[in-house]
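Support reply, case 0932

Customer input (verbatim):
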Amino acid sequence: MQNEQPFHIVLIEPEIPPNTGNIGRLCAATGTHLHLVGKLGFSLDDKHLKRAGLDYWPEVKLHRWDSLPEVQAQFPQARFWYTSKKASRSYTKADFKPGDFLVFGKETLGLPEELLAEEQDYALRIPIFSPAVRSLNLANSAAILLYEALRQNQRLD
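Our regenerated output:
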């Protein structure tokens, strides 16, 4: 997997350090790049962030950005997939390719409605079957999408 183009997880203004720590650990385990965008709800020195990521932080390919357009400008040929519980397309219907970016919004608000409207062809949802549950945990959602992308690209053998 080292020579293949990596996947990328993008977190827009993450708020909860253990979620980002768990996603960092996921990225370290899979060779995925982690992009943190905008204002963080914590410091990168946060003990809860480090605790969730354990001692794997040196293995995380971490990138910091001020805005999503800045990331997109740096990777103009890349495809970006946007996650939302309001998207009509299930993540299982996406055709993930190496180098794709999986974009997640902040825990309390998700991604901006305008962005999702502009990118509806690339908006994905993870089905939730109970109306009592508003959303899945951010770290769980990232793992679900990333492992589907890895599965589709025969990277789980």
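We compared this against your earlier run and they match. Two observations from our side: The chain has one domain: 8-152. The first strand starts at residue 8 and ends at 12. Please reopen the case if you see a mismatch on your end.
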